[in-house]
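Quick one, T. Sequence first:
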Amino acid sequence: MKIAFHSEKIRFKPGQRRRLKKWICRYIRLHSKIPGKLNFIFTSNDHLRKINREFLKHNHFTDVITFDYTEEKVITGDVFISIDQVRENACRYEVGFEEELRRVMIHGVLHLIGYEDRSCEEKEHMRKMEDDALNLW
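Structure tokens:
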């Protein structure tokens, strides 16, 4: 297991990195999966939108994009997160920045585990799992 934190086009380092790694690994194991190599890449709205256009053919802002390299039960991937969007979300939902950052991080992990959020029902289920993960913090 290797979890790494990087930034592209911005300067950002999350706080409590050791605790974040343990929390993410614990949550992955709760889903009967094995933590593999995970990269969390923190970036700007503009850069994430560029990635969104280039790789997903979507021309809009988003808070997280996940590239899944999982094989069998070993959860592996790159999770790109817009720090700009996390700040906006925190204001919109009236929560702290760190809490919203953890929510977006675990959202990316849930995609790697295999969950989707295309339908309203899937979004509701994903939100509940995010809340469950945040309660483990």
